[in-house]
Design a protein that fits this description.
By secondary structure, the protein is an alpha/beta fold. The protein contains 8 helices and 5 strands; from the N terminus they run ααβαβααβαβαβα. Strands 2-1-3-4-5 form a 5-stranded parallel sheet, sandwiched between helices.
Length: 189
C-alpha cells in the first residue's frame, strides 16, 4: 500500500511540474526583474509565513551565497529572520505589519520584493506589497492556484497549478531555484 501511495504522490508532482512548465515566461520575467534590480544596485527581498518563510530564507541564501556559479554575493535578504524586529513590530504594531515595516525601513525604489504564500491571501505579505508599490519596488507573488488577493497586488504573479500546500511549496522552491540560476547568468555573464 505505501509503495502505491508514494508512486501516486510522485506522479501528481510530475503532472504539476508539467503544468508549471507552461509558465516558463513568467519565471523568466521574474529573473529579469531580479537581474535588473541587482545590476542597478538594488536588492531582492523575500517574505512569507511558515514553510514560505523557510523558502524565503533558502532563496535569499542562494543569492547571497551562490546557487551554481562561483560569483560575488548578490544583495538579498529574507524579512523572516530577525526575531527582534519580528517580535518588536508584532508587539507594537501587530503581526500584519512585520514585513511592511521592514520594507519601509530598508526597501528602496528599484528593489524587488518576492512574497510567497500558498493561499495568496497572507495579510502581512499583502501589506508589504502595498508599501513596496508606494515606494517604487517591484512586487512578485509566488502563490498557489488562483493567486488569491496577491495576484491583484503584485506586478507579476506566479500562481503555480496546485491547491495542496505541500505541492505548492514544492513548485515554489523549484521555481525559486530557476529564478536564482537565471538571475546568476544574467547578472554575472
Amino acid at each position: 500500500m505505501s509503495k502505491e501511495w508514494i508512486q501516486a504522490e510522485l506522479a501528481a508532482v510530475a503532472s504539476y511540474m508539467e503544468e508549471l512548465a507552461k509558465q516558463a515566461s513568467v519565471i523568466e520575467q521574474i529573473a529579469d526583474y531580479c537581474a535588473h534590480s541587482l545590476k542597478n544596485g538594488g536588492k531582492i527581498m523575500f517574505c512569507g509565513n511558515g514553510g514560505s518563510a523557510a523558502d524565503s530564507q533558502h532563496l535569499a541564501a542562494e543569492f547571497v551565497g551562490r546557487y551554481k556559479m562561483e560569483r560575488k554575493a548578490l544583495n538579498s535578504v529574507a524579512l523572516t529572520v530577525d526575531t527582534s524586529i519580528l517580535t518588536a513590530v508584532g508587539n507594537d504594531y501587530g503581526y500584519d505589519d512585520v514585513f511592511r515595516r521592514q520594507v519601509e525601513g530598508i526597501g528602496r525604489a528599484g528593489d524587488v520584493l518576492i512574497g510567497l504564500s500558498t493561499s495568496g491571501n497572507s495579510t502581512n505579505v499583502l501589506k508589504a506589497f502595498e508599501q513596496a508599490a508606494a515606494m517604487g519596488i517591484t512586487t512578485v507573488a509566488f502563490t498557489g492556484a488562483g493567486g488569491g488577493a496577491m495576484q491583484q497586488k503584485a506586478d507579476i504573479c506566479l500562481a503555480v497549478p496546485a491547491s495542496v500546500t505541500n505541492h505548492i511549496q514544492e513548485m515554489h522552491i523549484t521555481s525559486g531555484h530557476l529564478v536564482c540560476e537565471l538571475t546568476e547568468k544574467l547578472v554575472c555573464s
